Amino acid sequence: MTDPRTPEDQTQPSELQTPDGQRRILTPGSDLNPRREFLRSAALFTGTVAALGGGLEVLTRRPGAGSAEAQAADPFSRADRPLGPYDTDEKVTPYQQATTYNNFYEFGTDKSDPARLARSLKTRPWTVRIDGEVRKPQTVDIDTLQSWFPLEDRVYRMRCVEGWSMVMPWLGFPLAGLIRRLEPTSKAKYVQFTALLDPKQFPGQRQPVLKWPYVEGLRLDEALHPLSFMAVGLHGRALPGQNGAPLRLVVPWKYGFKNIKSIVRITLTEKQPQTTWALAAPQEYGFYANVNPAVPHPRWSQATERRIGELGRRKTLPFNGYADEVASLYRGMDLRKNF
Amino acid sequence: MGWLVPAVTVGGLLPVAVLILDALSGALGANPIQRATLQTGLLTLVLLILSLACTPLRLLTGWTWPARIRKTLGLLAFGYAALHFLIYLFDHGFDLALMTEDVLKRPFITAGFTALLLLVPLALTSTPRAVKRLGFQRWTRLHQLSYVAVSLGALHYYWGVKQDHTPPLIYAAVIATLFLIRFLKRRPARPGRQAGSRPAKP
Questions:
Q1: Sheet containing A215-219, strands listed edge to edge, beginning at the edge strand earlier in sequence
Q2: Per-residue pLDDT at B1
């Protein structure tokens, strides 16, 4: 028999050689062998490391979508085509990043949720209801609507209100063409867009995080501006669900949340629409939401932004760099009040 | 039980290794700095909560081992808070003027920064020598700042979230529960006991 030890003895190796009969307490199940004692401690050590480390990972780690997936070469290549009058020549955000880092609360509030869950969105058949102050109210199939216009590429900067930005090669048609085709009445002052409401396809809509369906709007003159665009594709291919398939709005001089996705209804109205984010937090998100480095968000500065793919920050430009084109739309307005 | 503190230390540092591996392999996604900021922030809060759970756990169960890892968990929390702050500074190009403006003008940042400042004296006085020098009573009172720090941390998280407030509210509820256990378990036992006495061993 070797060295029966009480737990207290373990830290005093000198006692190993001097068995003290009177202090022996033989607890059942205690290991009598120092080697087994060591193994037991090692197992407990490893178990605790794994439990604590694993637990912390489960609670805090949110990997940013599978990086191995969709590492294919970007289908859109600017070398194939000349720059259009509204295109930026800045480096285009790779398809993989543009389609895995998305705010689309209909799928969930985490940026990796949309790419993960977008498969549930069925974009065909898809109809768009057009109504309100128009002479030709109608419900039109998305493929028909798309066939009304020649599709064109537009390489636009996109600036999210959260302080990051991308360069997106959209495929689609100018919004002005669509509006003119609908023949607005003289009462039409605003355009209201409504996204699909369907909690079966949009799991995020099961939570009342925002007031569903998502609604956005533009003033009629903003909507008629040549920069305002309806996108049906990205990087030369069909728009992925997470990017707002099959039809989304793109207004590049405004924060990203104005660019409503998965549109099912376009209504011309006399009154300014009540838009989703302006309803959710009126002190933080206004109807206009023009990119403006001089007006901070209440919780962070808007002076700088991170272009996705870069580590540093760059200065944010007024109207996201489109001031020459659109500043005149807001002449005489106080953009601190009308933020 | 000699394995306990080293195991907690290694386990608590494991997320740093994973974070570095994730950053190198591109698994942090399109905006790695934001992802790292969020993760270190959450790790700070979780570890602070774990360190604050030690005493209630001891009070409820009579176990003594939670008291032995409390300091380690607290120091790990401080380490993650410092890392979180460093990443924030890196994100803003180490522009101290910008940081000062953020701290002064934005309650969201003010809360987080104050929580970090409150943790500094706690980390500095985490040695047995500091306990001796301050006296146990005063040391205990000083370390009650951790209650303020964890609350500010939760508020910082709540204010930082754009819309879905469920996760920060869950953290707040856990913190509130821990406070409640301390309050309920300590109050009646106080008279007749020495300050800081431990429950008798079974």
A1: A138-141, A127-132, A263-269, A190-195, A215-219
A2: 79
